[in-house]
Write a structure and sequence with these properties.
single chain, 3 helices
Amino acid sequence: MKNSILHLIFLIIFTGCGSVSKENPKLYELKSYQFKNIDPKGYKILKTADEMIKNRVIIRGSCWDFVNAVYEKAGFPKQKRVTIAKTSKRGSINPKILKPGDWIYHINLSYRNVEHSAIFVKWIDFKNKKALTISYAGERRKTPARYKIYDLSRIYTVIRPE
């Protein structure tokens, strides 16, 4: 009980690129059967990120550094990535183009409207633009990435493994 309370306090105090998720990350653990029909490259990105979450890998740096590390580890360095869509930070890209494993830059509407990088997993509520992502808080915290639902109403860049 004491450990649970300390863990909860730690999560509340040390938030970063996003607020503490109310969703239980265990509900969203990556299962291969959920992604039978996705591109193998996207699957490789998701599987690599999932392993890093399970191993509680900490990347020194920001959300961008974490997603970059996932892509590198999965075998997709900068020259093996393609920018699918890009717009100004005030605009928004058509969310229908997103595929599991895409690297997305979006405005984090739940945390100070800051720029945020994450990995798209799947839509939870497309109509309201709620999606499950793999997100890393960064901000010099020693917290591993997690599965988190974000409002993706303001996506401004989409990068895909090539």
